[in-house]
Every structure is written in structure tokens, then in C-alpha cells.
């Protein structure tokens, strides 16, 4: 069992139905929909022994990390960089790193699930950052640059 890095298949389909809103874009012209507002996304941590990946559809507590300084469900990712494209792929990344301070995780953790709490906890993506344990420390998930080839979420 292992957490496998992947954009969740269900998320890819949901994009076409407009389930996820990563920002509040400036709309130049539109004929119907109201101006969208950004959804709230969370990032939850998972044990090395968990088995999350492309098949995840919603946030689940199965295999979730526990310990001092960690709350089930994880933390909000905060705002996302404005979704953009480079002519061949679309991309976006949370605007800031996510950190847990005063954290003690006695059991090895290596995975993170990003999910949309506004839309019924729908799974977005699973990320594997390598096995780690922490005792009274800080775990920081540093976000990559919001650019094609480096952004956390990319559709090519």
C-alpha cells in the first residue's frame, strides 16, 4: 500500500461540469452564469500505510494522519494563484505554503490529499512528499511556482 501522486480522475471529469472554482476571475463578457466565487480547498495528510491516489473521489478519514498539532481534515490551502495557461496547458497552485507547527507525528506520513470542501469534499489530487515523522516540529508543504511544468495542478 502506498499513496500515489496523481490528479484524481473524478476531478478531471468534474472540471467539465464546472464543479471547482479556484478563483474569482474577471469575466470580460458572459451571457448567463453569475460571477463565480472561489471555493475553499483543504489539504489533509495521510500515513505511509494508506493507499490514496487517482481513484479517490472524496476526502476520507481512512489512513489519515493523527497526532499532536494535527486536526482531522487538515488545513485550508488558502487562496490559489489565478488559473492560467500557456497555450498548451492550464495550471494553478496555492498562493502560499501550508504549515503545521507544534506537530508530533509518531507514525510515518507521506501523502497529502487536496479536496474541495465547498463542493461536498470532492477529491482534487494526491501528492507524495516522502516518508516523514516529526516530534514537536513544523511540517511545511512548500508550493511550487505557478507556471507550466511546475504548478501543483496542471491539465495538459
Beta fraction: 35-45%
**Could you spell the SSE succession in H and E letters?**
EHEEEEEEE
Query: Roughly how much helix do the residues carry, as a percent range?
Result: under 10%
Give the overall average pLDDT. Answer: 91
Number of domains: 1
Question: Helical element count?
Answer: 1
Q: List low-pLDDT spans.
A: none
User: How many strands?
Assistant: 8
Tell me what the structure shows.
The protein is mainly beta and 156 residues long. It has one domain (6-22, 38-148). 5% of the residues lie in helices and 37% in strands. The protein has a five-stranded antiparallel β-sheet with strand order 1-7-6-2-3. Strand 4 (84-85) and strand 5 (90-92) form a beta hairpin. The protein is globular, with a radius of gyration of 16 Å.
Mind sketching the topology for me?
Elements: E1 6-7, H1 9-16, E2 41-47, E3 75-76, E4 84-85, E5 90-92, E6 98-116, E7 122-141, E8 153-155
Antiparallel strand pairs: 1-7, 2-3, 2-6, 4-5, 5-8, 6-7
Concise overview:
The chain is mainly β and 156 residues long. Helices cover 5% and strands 37% of the residues. A five-stranded antiparallel β-sheet has the order 1-7-6-2-3. It has a three-stranded antiparallel β-sheet with strand order 4-5-8, with no helix packed on it.
List the defining traits of the structure above.
156 residues; five-stranded antiparallel β-sheet; 8 strands; 5% helix; 37% strand; mainly beta
